[in-house]
Write a structure and sequence with these properties.
The structure holds two protein chains of two kinds. Chain A is of the alpha+beta class. In chain A, about 65% of the residues lie in helices and about 10% in strands. Chain B is about 55% helix and about 15% strand. By secondary structure, chain B is α/β, with parallel strands linked by helices. Classes of the chains: A alpha+beta, B alpha/beta. At the A-B interface, α1, α2 and α4 of A face α1, α11 and α12 of B.
């Protein structure tokens, strides 16, 4: 075999190895991302369970004792950003992404229910937004709506935004949709119990938000 | 759309990596190692170096002075200056050397570089003839080292290691990076007779080659490429003297650079078409099966990658602006914190980094081979980020010129 041919074959093998390594490292990084999301979700699930257990154990829970509230909110937001990035990297049809989204949606629903209990017990008046989107190509306003909600969530700390993929196969989510009678007209919003469709710009969404409640939020009080 | 673009990018990346690894393996071949060490001559055959010149009165003096300083037996080495009908003071500068017994000065009506070279060859009585552009300069050891690489009767020409003379501006330094990369590549490809250009700045030929194959031709304003392809077709070998350093003046404006490189690229496309029997020809070894086909791929892939980059950048910029306009501007401190999760690590980015790292290594190896102490700094970063976009411009221009049969002036 001529030296040139030997070099060419060796170069082909080495280039293939480099290629394979590139794919492998990329997969490792994506797996690390998935693991991080799963870890965060487990942590949130534990913290949620802890808060629920406090409610069950103590008949008269002091609202001052609720320290996980703001931490849970931040963790859920961080989780949402990571899940969104992973979905863009791996694709929305990836089975791992779908499983993570289902777990995340369940955590959101639990947080929503828990925060309603906290609000009732501690005489708070938070503003809840349930946001339903679709990424099956039937919502060209969803990117804008999501962007605006992210801005609002960062601007108003008392605003709690829960985003759900309408078409996600999750029993609890479908029950939530059914209870609120959400139609498949995207984007869809439930803001403090009232349903709205098609809002996507900042002005339109702020118009329907009770901004005065967000601007003057009161600290939690014991019953 | 992204999937379609990825389907184009992956094969191009593989081909680039394959070629880089091949060049690297060739660099470590025992013949290449021996050739890097080859500096001493067994004998000193007669050599004539021809300097064709058209309106280069400002640089030809430096060129001739560098030749007169060459370390080679004076009675075996002559210099032939050919004034190709210049209208500036080139003739006067050349005539000032006519008293030197080593130097012969020829004047001709303006007929083109190839005619000037042929005129010089016709006047040469030496066994070897070489050429040196009038804006280039040789190091004193260059000729010895070139001649030391004529170690095989089948070698018809030996090229040198060409880099930029005293690069100062960012554009010159970016070109320097490119030339140093070329030094490494030329040296590696010469190991398996894979060269298809005998550059004007300091290539030496056996005079016999011209007697057998005929003189230089106009050849689409790239006579140095045509003669190399003609040599290859006739079964001659072209070698490289890696430690024979030669410096050339690089264009100092983007316009000048694009004009020069358009000429080179159209020259390649037209000459390689004329010699298309070499392409894909297994009898031509590395040249036919690897170098020439990949040279074509690199012209079109450069354009393709530019288009893909522009599409992706425009898409990302459009989305960013669209999102930014939806909400008031707020400064988010979290944007400053490092979070590994969001690093753009994908298969394409990893492979691109590997390919770039190898290019980086080639540039530094090229500098070492040519024994050149080059400082880079930001120009190296700009070479990676900016230069390829400029390159795509002359590649598009060259392809368009070939398709539309447009002929441009040399300068």
């Amino acid at each position: 075999m001529s030296p040139a041919l030997k070099n060419a074959l060796l170069a082909f093998v080495i280039a293939s190895l480099i290629f394979g390594t590139g794919f492998w490292v990329s997969n490792l990084v994506n797996q690390a991302r998935v693991n991080e999301i799963q870890t965060i979700q487990e942590r949130i699930a534990t913290d949620t369970l802890s808060l629920e257990t406090q409610f069950d154990l103590l008949a008269r829970l002091s609202c001052d004792a609720i320290t996980e509230n703001s931490i849970l909110s931040k963790e859920l937001n961080d989780l949402a950003e990571r899940l969104d990035y992973t979905e863009r990297e791996l694709g929305s049809k990836n089975s791992t992404v779908i499983l993570l989204k289902r777990q995340y949606s369940l955590l959101q629903i639990k947080d929503y229910l828990l925060m309603q209990q906290v609000a009732s017990k501690c005489n708070l008046k938070p503003v809840f937004i349930l946001y339903f989107y679709s990424n099956q190509g039937d919502c060209d306003k969803c990117d804008s709506a999501g962007n605006v909600l992210t801005y609002l969530r960062k601007t108003y700390e008392e605003l709690r935004v829960y985003a759900f993929d309408y078409h996600l196969d999750l029993g609890a989510l479908q029950t939530l949709i059914s209870i609120n009678k959400i139609e498949s007209d995207f984007p869809a919003f439930v803001i403090n119990g009232k349903t709205y469709y098609g809002l996507s710009d900042l002005e339109a969404i702020e118009k329907v938000l009770p901004l005065d409640k967000l601007a003057t939020s009161t600290p939690p009080r014991a019953n | 759309m992204n999937l379609a673009l990825d389907i184009i990018i992956y094969p191009l990346l593989f081909v680039a990596l394959f070629f880089e690894v091949f060049a690297l393996l060739s660099f470590f071949d025992k013949d290449a190692v021996a050739r890097r060490k080859r500096r001493e001559n067994v004998s000193y055959p007669t050599v004539s170096i021809i300097v064709p010149c058209f309106n280069e009165g400002s640089t030809v003096k430096g060129t001739v002075d560098s030749l007169l300083a060459v370390d080679y037996p004076k009675d075996k080495f002559s210099i032939i200056l050919v004034n190709d009908g210049s209208t500036d003071d080139t003739a006067d500068v050349m005539n000032s050397y006519s008293a030197n017994p080593q130097v012969a000065v020829l004047h001709q009506a303006n007929s083109g570089k190839h005619v000037a070279l042929n005129n010089g060859i016709a006047h040469a009585t030496s066994e070897f003839v070489g050429c040196l552009d009038a804006d280039s300069f040789v190091t004193p050891q260059a000729l010895k080292r070139v001649m030391a690489n004529f170690d095989d009767d089948k070698i018809g020409a030996v090229t040198s290691s060409l880099s930029v003379h005293a690069p100062k501006t960012l554009l010159e330094r970016m070109q320097e990076a490119e030339y140093l990369f070329g030094i490494m590549l030329r040296h590696s490809m010469a190991t398996f007779n894979g060269l298809y250009v005998t550059p004007g700045p300091f290539t030496v030929f056996r005079k016999r080659v011209f007697e057998e194959l005929g003189p230089f031709r106009s050849a689409h304003q790239t006579e140095d490429m045509e003669i190399a392809l003609r040599l290859q077709r006739a079964g001659w070998k072209i070698q490289n003297a890696p430690s024979a350093s030669v410096f050339t003046k690089a264009p100092t404006t983007v316009t000048g650079l694009v004009k020069q490189r358009t000429r080179w690229s159209t020259g390649f496309l037209r000459n390689s078409f004329d010699y298309r029997d070499l392409i894909g020809n297994p009898k031509r070894g590395v040249l036919g099966l690897l170098v020439l086909p990949l040279a074509y791929v690199s012209v079109f892939s450069g354009i393709l990658l530019l288009v893909i980059s522009m599409i992706r950048t425009t898409e990302a910029a459009w989305n960013y602006v669209a999102r930014a306009l939806e909400v008031p501007f707020t400064w988010d401190m979290s944007a400053l914190t490092f979070d590994w999760f969001f690093l753009p690590i994908s298969t394409i980015s990893i492979l691109s980094m590997v390919a770039l790292a190898i290019v980086f290594a080639f540039i530094f190896i090229g500098a070492k081979i040519a024994e050149k102490d080059t400082r880079f700094g930001i120009s190296l970063i700009l070479y990676f980020l900016v230069y390829n976009f400029i390159a795509a411009i002359w590649q598009v221009r060259a392809v368009a010129d070939v398709i539309t049969n447009t002929k441009r002036s040399w300068r």
